[in-house]
């Protein structure tokens, strides 16, 4: 799916965060529950931040078309009903891919406030990967 | 019909119009009727003016800090209903959802700025203008104001005026566009929820009958208008003849000058959104590209290539990059201009006629259209088309570009794309246009600045938004004091 507008990119980002919320919350029980719960809360906060960005950072004077960004390149299939090793593997992939998306989207986005937000989200994704490493 | 038959809001009550005359409101993407708007009678307008006049005295005595709190309450409600409002704008107008969100954001900005009225409305004083004599200037509200709104920013434009007018202590009447009246209906639900005293804000739907009733009513102190130049001239002269103040934002033919030293890829992206955003129906839309010297060939090629890739469709689809035009009537007018351009001898590089959007066979879609070799004397170079039609005029140098712009009767906006500070300075210094963009395709002032305009693009002196709005909606009273 071509992401050629500000709104399409923000919506895709929100879908990624919602997917993370569902995945981390879905993996209930076991030793990962507390750590995944924290990541789910973090994703929920990121989702709200993105919603706010879509509402507040839309700057019509530079609402320019965007090319070369495709959502299909950042899709991750996850399944919460696997063993802990599988969950951790998927979580790492999810965080890496999400970071990659924000990195690429920041390079395309003409609105600098949103670029800053995406870069902040990338830094958080890196911290979240460290959190995951501690859970392993 | 999603929004049903719209009602007026007068004296704090929703009231059905007594008029039998109604118009259908279409969703331009689907052609479906989404609402019906009544064409109110002069008597209904008079009732709104009476209610506003009745409410004025108590409202002007309400402390500015308290009036500001109404703005803050309204701001919270607007944020809560942000997405719903943006979607209503898409459905009535056709613009894409990002553009509608931008419109609602600017609307909220104006409410935020108006909430600063306790300091914005402060006067000034001087002691000892003569020995023992002091002088002060106070800003006072005037009375009943109204606005006559356009279809292209149906939610935002009345909020260039209403928040400032009411925050300053005036009362207000909105006459929305009869083509796109839905979002004002939704906004008045929020004004009602914010609990403004009855009569402070009023909504009257209608057409010229309602406008004339407002313009000639002795209790209306002033009018704000945004729309075409002929109607702007009519409103300005009629208001003046009836002793009212007026600010009339009118038509445009905005030029985008591209210098050989412009950063081409970024420039093309900016030109595209300027010319084809909101399907060319912004008063800040770029209508003519003046390509200076050697930039002409590469710019032309890149523009056509990029414009032909724009995704056209329903504005509610987040991936859509350009929506339909507002109505069948607009579509017919724009198609007429394309035919005129061909007949005048301009070279049609990209033809937006006859495009089909799958699943939307009844929508009012015209694709991006680009003419090359446009001459300044052609109708497509001089007249406002208000659609997704862009003309390219090759010019030899900066001076020729300026001469072309100065020859156009409008002075709403112009943009320059360059890496040179010298050219940028010359451009903003010398051009008779109100809104200037330097490497910005849509020079849209934020709420703290006036939405400017010159020549046939504006009639009046004080503009909408910012400090100009405070001046427009107040009188200055000077008091000179001596104590014995």
Uncertain spans of chain A: none
Q: Describe the sheet with the most strands of chain B.
A: 7 strands, mixed
Shape of chain B: globular
What would CATH call the homologous superfamily of the largest domain in chain B? Aldehyde Dehydrogenase, Chain A, domain 1
CATH class of chain A: Mainly Alpha
Structure annotation, total helices of chain A: 4
Quaternary structure: heterodimer
Helical content band of chain A: 55-70%
Task: Catalogue the unreliable spans of chain B.
Answer: none
What is the gist of this entry?
The complex is a heterodimer of chains A (136) and B (484). Helices cover 69% and strands 0% of the residues of chain A.
Helix and strand layout, with pairings?
The complex is a heterodimer of chains A (136) and B (484).
Chain A (H helix, E strand, L loop, with lengths): L5 H21 L6 H24 L27 H25 L3 H24 L1
Helix pairs in contact in A: 1-2, 1-3, 2-4, 3-4
Chain B lengths: L7 E3 L2 E3 L6 E5 L6 E6 L3 H20 L2 H17 L1 H12 L3 H18 L2 H4 L3 E7 L2 E9 L2 E5 L13 H6 L3 E5 L6 H12 L7 E3 L4 H9 L3 E7 L2 H13 L3 E5 L4 E5 L5 H13 L9 E7 L3 H13 L19 H17 L2 E4 L18 E4 L6 H4 L6 E7 L2 H10 L2 E2 L1 E5 L3 H10 L4 E4 L15 E2 L2 E2 L6 H7 L1 E9 L2
Parallel strand pairs in B: 7-8, 7-10, 8-9, 10-11, 12-13, 12-18, 13-16, 15-16, 18-19
Antiparallel strand pairs in B: 1-2, 3-4, 5-6, 6-22, 11-21, 14-15, 17-20
Give descriptors for this structure.
heterodimer, A: 136 residues, mainly alpha, Ferritin, 4 helices, 69% helix, elongated, B: 484 residues, alpha/beta, Aldehyde Dehydrogenase, Chain A, domain 1, Aldehyde Dehydrogenase, Chain A, domain 2, 2 domains, 16 helices
Description of the structure:
- The complex is a heterodimer of chains A (136) and B (484).
- Chain A is mainly alpha-helical and 136 residues long.
- Chain A has one domain (6-135): Ferritin, core subunit, four-helix bundle (Ferritin), CATH 1.20.1260.
- Chain A has helices spanning 6-26, 33-56, 84-108, 112-135.
- Chain A is elongated.
- Chain B folds into two domains: 8-250 and 457-482, Aldehyde Dehydrogenase, Chain A, domain 1, CATH 3.40.605; 254-438, Aldehyde Dehydrogenase, Chain A, domain 2 (3-Layer(aba) Sandwich).
- Chain B has a seven-stranded mixed beta sheet with strand order 14-15-16-13-12-18-19, with helices on both faces. Chain B has a six-stranded mixed beta sheet with strand order 9-8-7-10-11-21, with helices on both faces. A three-stranded antiparallel beta sheet of chain B has the order 5-6-22.
- The chains are: A mainly alpha (136), B alpha/beta (484).
- The interface between A and B is medium-sized, with 22 and 31 residues.
